[in-house]
Amino acid sequence: MATQLTHYHTDGANRQAQAVLAFVQYLIGDGIEESWNDEFKCYDADIEVARWENCREQGYILSLRSPKYGQNQLNIAFFEHRNTDSICAIKWHQWSLNSLNIDTAEFGEECYSNKWETSYDVSYGEAYKMADWIRDQLINHWVEHADEKRKF
After folding, report:
1. CA distances, 25 to each of 28, 53, 82 (Å)
2. Do 134 and 20 meet the contact criterion of CB atoms below 8 Å apart?
3. Are the beta carbons of 148 and 72 closer than 8 angstroms?
4. Please, are residues 150 and 69 in contact by the beta-carbon 8 Å criterion?
5. What gap in Å lies between CA 138 and CA 152, rounded to an integer?
6. First vs last C-alpha separation in the chain
7. 3-state helix vs strand vs coil in the chain, percent to 5
8. What is the pTM (predicted TM-score) of this model?
């Protein structure tokens, strides 16, 4: 059944954030290549996605735990900035069993001490550039922690 374009894929996220998510999915494909498990014929990296809601900043958060399900978890939230219309990302490390949100995030000194302290910004319309940066961060996190042993 067809629906109007303006009503399709309306989960509350900003259109720019939706575009970034689509590009991340495109760039990652079936999985992070560096996480390929030849024994089980699958990718070990399990990137989780949830909605990010912060008043007018409506986007998504991606989370990736280190290999062997360690407690080193990378989180990247991305959204259209409420004041500039640029696409912003905030990146921090925090382990959580459930999806993090603005109320449960513990940024520490990594980022977001105020609304201007983001980890990476691109201009309005540069969704692909943001997705490319996010993909690189996810891959780097996986590779950096590939030799860690399970801590629990």
Report:
1. 5, 20, 25
2. yes
3. yes
4. yes
5. 22
6. 48
7. 25, 25, 50
8. 0.90
